[in-house]
Amino acid sequence: MNRFMYGREENLGSRNAITRRDMTLVAPLAAIAASTVAALAQARDEGEKQPTLEEKYARRFPQPVHVSDVLGKAIINDDFALIGYVQSVVRTRDGKIELIVPYDGLFGFGQRLVAVPIEAVASIGTSLVALDMPKEEFRKAPTWYGADTRFLSPNEIIRVAVTRL
């Protein structure tokens, strides 16, 4: 065959006779089809119901612990950066348990109290990890003032999820 074939189609396969021109037509169509399938799959994933905080908490096998075991524990994020230490544990009017954590500030000055739902954290060794509350949410969280809550005594039992990273 002539190496420089102008105006002619070069046969790439003897059995199925696919030409270069056929390949240049099929490639863009395949790319469009692949992107359409990917977009449909993404739309289906976005349409799926995301599990609630309580459902995620239930999957982490919450274990009974005394409130005194949680008090003073460090709360870290999934990068092992310290967020704060549990100052107190409260029960809201709705029956939800929240951990009160001083957040922000510099060397203990200018800190504000933030309520962290017990469902958003899990025990990992001697610390608690904030799995469902990233550091940005701590920054955006409202300051906790203690309205409509009851402090839990150190001998009360609560359930804390368990995890491993």
Features:
single chain, 165 residues, alpha+beta, SH3 type barrels, 2 domains, six-stranded mixed sheet, four-stranded antiparallel sheet, 27% helix
Provide structural commentary.
This protein is an alpha+beta fold and 165 residues long. The chain folds into 2 domains: 1-48; 53-162, Roll (SH3 type barrels), CATH 2.30.30. Helices cover 27% and strands 28% of the residues. The chain is built from 4 helices and 10 strands. The strands form 2 sheets. Strands 1-10-7-8-2-3 form a 6-stranded mixed β-sheet. Strands 6-5-4-9 form a 4-stranded antiparallel β-sheet, with no helix packed on it. β2 and β3 (82-85) form a beta hairpin. The model has no long low-confidence stretch (mean pLDDT 79).
Concise description?
With 165 residues, the protein is an alpha+beta fold. 27% of the residues lie in helices and 28% in strands.
Low-confidence spans:
none
Proportion of helical residues:
25-40%
Q: How are the strands of the largest sheet arranged?
A: 1-10-7-8-2-3
| CATH fold name of the largest domain | SH3 type barrels
Distance between the first and last residues' Cα: 62 Å
CATH architecture of the largest domain: Roll
Q: Name the CATH superfamily classification of the largest domain.
A: PRC-barrel domain
Q: Kindly state the number of beta strands.
A: 10
